[in-house]
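Human: I hope this is not a bother. Would you mind checking the protein record under this note? Thank you for your patience.
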Amino acid sequence: MRKFRAFFYNKFYIELILASVLFVIAIGTNSMINIIIYLLYFIIMLEIVRAVMSFLREKRVQIRILIDAFIILTLRELIVNVVKINEIKIDSIETLFGSTPNYHILIFSGVLLFLFLLRWLAFVTSPDKYNTKN
């Protein structure tokens, strides 16, 4: 029993087992993209709950958590549009730049870069950064 408890004491094993089970289910049901999209929805909900709990506990909004949620939401939309692109037959350059999902991918890529810049600025200017040094 002690070995069993020690095995699950390290959370990495639990994550590895859970990820392996989800991967096998996704391969078995041929729904890898759907599982990824729903997991990203779940992570977005976790981030929003974390932001609300942080606000209730500390009486201030942590922009970092909200930016993380928007980054995950943008990644989800990017994945959905990449899947749409895989269904489009591209014969020429006009077809490549003439489809709406391609423009969406360009816009979401720009939004992602902007959000990563905001995330970095939130980290650099965070009041928590100054409180931990004292």
About this structure: The mean pLDDT is 80. The helical segments are 2-9, 11-29, 32-58, 63-86, 93-98, 100-124, 127-133. The two ends are 44 Å apart (CA to CA).
